[in-house]
Amino acid sequence: MRAGPSQEEIRRHNLGTLLRHVHLSGPTSRAELAGRMGLNRSTIMALTADLTAAGLVREELPRETGRAGRPSLVVRPESARVYVLAFDVGVDRLVAARVGIGGVILDRRETVRPRGGFEMPEVVAALAGFARQMHRKTRPDTVCVGAAAAICGSVGRTDGVVRFGPNIGFKDAPFGEELSKRLALGLPVTVGNDGNVGAIAEQSRGVGIGCRDLIYLHGDVGIGGGIVVNGQLLGGLAGYGGEVGHMVVNPGGRPCACGSRGCLEAEVGERALMELAGHSTELTGREAVRAVVDAAGRGDVRAQDALHRVGDWLGLGVANLVNIFNPEMVIFGGVLRELYLGAAAQVRSRINTSTLVASREDLRLRISALGDDATVVGAAELAFAQVLADPLEVLSRLA
Amino acid sequence: MRAGPSQEEIRRHNLGTLLRHVHLSGPTSRAELAGRMGLNRSTIMALTADLTAAGLVREELPRETGRAGRPSLVVRPESARVYVLAFDVGVDRLVAARVGIGGVILDRRETVRPRGGFEMPEVVAALAGFARQMHRKTRPDTVCVGAAAAICGSVGRTDGVVRFGPNIGFKDAPFGEELSKRLALGLPVTVGNDGNVGAIAEQSRGVGIGCRDLIYLHGDVGIGGGIVVNGQLLGGLAGYGGEVGHMVVNPGGRPCACGSRGCLEAEVGERALMELAGHSTELTGREAVRAVVDAAGRGDVRAQDALHRVGDWLGLGVANLVNIFNPEMVIFGGVLRELYLGAAAQVRSRINTSTLVASREDLRLRISALGDDATVVGAAELAFAQVLADPLEVLSRLA
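YS: structure for the whole thing
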């Protein structure tokens, strides 16, 4: 409950707002920006000049508009000089990407991460190696202005420590700090839970654009979640909010890596599906889930039954979330895309029997639009957060 | 993503902010207000003068401070001229209150609402009658500036329609509109779900002051919930968020009034407890629950067992919410106060076995500080919302 902002605060806010528009919407005319921001064109011109000088945007004549009169210049994101590093630590892969303003992936590296192998130092070394390889290929005046990572574990809001990541063997691991040291760019590395980061990605660049209330469910070996409430990611007291994978849907059910029983991720995770389908556990991840969905499609009764049972638990978990959140959209990401596509009838049926009509009436169920890139795209958005909040401050620190 | 505010918007914002400070914190010195709002004393003086002229606050010399120098005048909420009406429609009672700035209950009326009796027109007539009685006792220049009601049913964000209130027999009932007509004050009546409204009350005037992430669980015959995320009440797409009573904790369990089975309110509600304890269902509500808790305390084994079983389901529901929200506080209100006090060990034990350590480590479990008044106090806060957002606009409309 503070008083109103100063003129300088307003200018910084406006610079960040303009850059955010262009970053998220792509090339936008000055006239459009003036309309969206409620400012006159001369103010937009001055703001754009500052951002252009900082190498964050550039102005261009638009393509033929077909309208009479002088066309309004178009402001575009400029990705030649400034970029962020985005990382994704999944159960079976490591990804690093160099991402420019506007969210364009300029370069990327990926490697398979053997299950049960790779302690934190090896993960950090591999990611930092990728970053160096990618930076070596840039122009000499190119600068990295942010870095962030998605990881399949519980992460606090501020410290980059992975408190609990049973599927990758991390416990109280100071991952952000170690990666920051190894990158040696003088930048902190923001770390986010894969579900949370995927939610940010789908909301800013995926199927959830424009949704203020959405739930993103990310299936890897376990199930992570990211929940957007009134436009903001739900973090809770310390940033651990969104751990929907450990909601108990089946009291006394399958044991979970967290020590409890019947958690959503124990009943719906890859292992439950493989066991129920009688599939070998040699195949893992997306391929394993897809093999069950394919087998069910070909008429394999055991695979069909496995999908139905897992789909029923998934539906119950989603139904609970619908009653609690009255969301506009639930998005199935990671391996849950394949699972949902194979068991949509069960999921919908459970939602219909176990939610209040009012809570579900405008609900949309969707699969992730960004697919396997959701986590790394979301990590890039985390890495851009500081630049978008105060573009010139960030650049002046680097100059 | 709009541009910064105009000077007039800033003034209105500051008037609302100052009034909100005084409304929530009580008498506050000008110096303290200046510090909290980041404004100088002359601006505070001007704002206070406007609010004083409108009859919303008054200034006084403080009591002896013991410090040297000229004391800073104290700004107090003024409740003589302006008030709001707050209503509560519970399963077995109806409450109406006249509430002044500062949240002081100036007058109240209450009646027993026979279960199964009272259709909406009778409820509306009873509440409007109470309002007239109370207004008749005020000074001639006293004005009502807002009205709101809490009700045990699902309510949309904007229209005051009770979509579903099975425990009071309301379905798609235009309660807000009807009550507004019957009051004939030219004011809309904001309607909120009892759990949501109770959460607002506990956060603004109860045990949750200062908490930005809390969950309020309200037990009546069913269980309502109100969830505060990052300082804001969770509404969801259409305002139906927070229906935690219909989270399924026991798939295939007891039938629920909503049509599903094993909902939290079916397993924990008053009926389940009475049946498990073998108590007659003649006693209802708080008295009935208290009778079971008392019997358990006197060593009645069946009552103890009933409390343990119900406490276990309550704990499971809370555990799920803790994983999902990482809240700072969970508050037990309505009859859940008695239930929690009688089964705290089961509740805590379930939370310990079924939540991630990180999600629960700074969790506080508390009982409602406002007790039976939580809903009506919260309704008053809803009714004040418009006045606090723009104090002078509201008063100019009435002038």
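YS: worth flagging: Chain B touches chain A through 68 residues (CB under 8 Å).
IM: good catch. Also Residues 7-77 of chain B form a domain with the Arc Repressor Mutant, subunit A fold (CATH 1.10.10.10).
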